[in-house]
Amino acid sequence: MVSSAVSTVPTMGGSRPACRLASWNRQTGPLPARRAARVVKVAAVSGVDAVKKAVAATSVSLALSAGVFSPGALAELNQYEAEIGGEFGNGTAQQYGEAEIPGRDFSKQDLRRSNFTAADCRDCNFKDAKLVGAYFIKSVVARANFENADLSDTLMDRAVIVDANLRNAVLQRAVFTRSDFSRSDIYGADFTNALVDKSQQMQMCKIADGVNSITGVSTRKSLNCSSRRQFAASTPSNPDGPQVSEDEKSAFTASMPSYRE
Predict the structure, then answer these.
(1) Are 191 and 147 in contact, with CB atoms under 8 Å apart?
(2) I need a surface site. Which of 6, 169, 181, 206 has the fewest CB within 10 A?
C-alpha cells in the first residue's frame, strides 16, 4: 500500500484523492508499488499544471481589462476617431470626451451626435454649427459662442454654460438639468420642449426676449414664461404636453447614419 497523499485526480464524478486511486483499483485490486507511485506523481504534476494555467488565464484577463478600459486606451481611441472625421468617418459623431480644447473654432461644422462629455470648451466657437444629438454632459462651455447653432436633442445636463452666447440658437428637446445659464445671452433662443430646471427657467424668463429666426418661436414662449400651468404641462414626461412634430421626427431620422443600404 502507498501512503496517503494530498494530490487529487480529476474524474468524471469529481476529484478523488490520488492515494485512493494509487492504492486500490476496483477491478484489479492493489496496484504495484511503482505503478502507484507513478499515479501519484502524475496527479501531482497535473494539479500544478492546472494551477499554472488558471494563474496564466487570470493574468491575461487582467491585462486585457487594463488595456481596454484604461484612460490611456480610451484617449487614443478618441484621438483616432477625431482624426478620421468621426465614428462613422463622415464628419459627424466626433470624439472630444474630456478633451481640453479651449478656444477651438467649430463654426459651421457638422458635429451631429459628437461627444464633448466633460470637455473643456471654454471660449469655443460653435456659431452656425450642427450639434443635433450631441453630448455635452458635465462640459464647460463658459463664454462659448452658440449663435445660430442647432442644439436640438442634445444632452447638456450638469454643464457650465455661464456667459455663453446662445443668440438665435435652436435648443428644442435638449436636456439642461442642473446646468448653469448665468449671464448667458439667450436672445431669440428656442427652448421648446427643453428640460430646464425650474430655478434656471425663472431666471431666464427675467431676460427672455426675441424671436428665433429659424423656427419663428419667441424665446419667452419657448420657456413658457407667461403661464405657470403651461410650464407644468410641457414637461417631457407629461403625454398631454406639446409633442414632437412628425416633420421634426423625420428630420432627425434623416440625420442618422446609414449602416446598410
Answers:
(1) no
(2) 206
Q: Quote the radius of gyration of the chain (alpha carbons, Å).
A: 32
Nearest Cα residue to 194 out of 161, 21, 29:
161
C-alpha cell at 253: 431620422
Q: pTM of whole model > 0.70?
A: no
Q: Which residues contact 168 (CB under 8 A, 6 or more apart)?
A: 147, 148, 187, 188, 189, 210, 212, 213, 214
Measured from the Cβ of residue 79, the count of other Cβ atoms closer than 10 Å reads: 12
Q: How far apart are CA 94 and CA 155, in angstroms?
A: 15
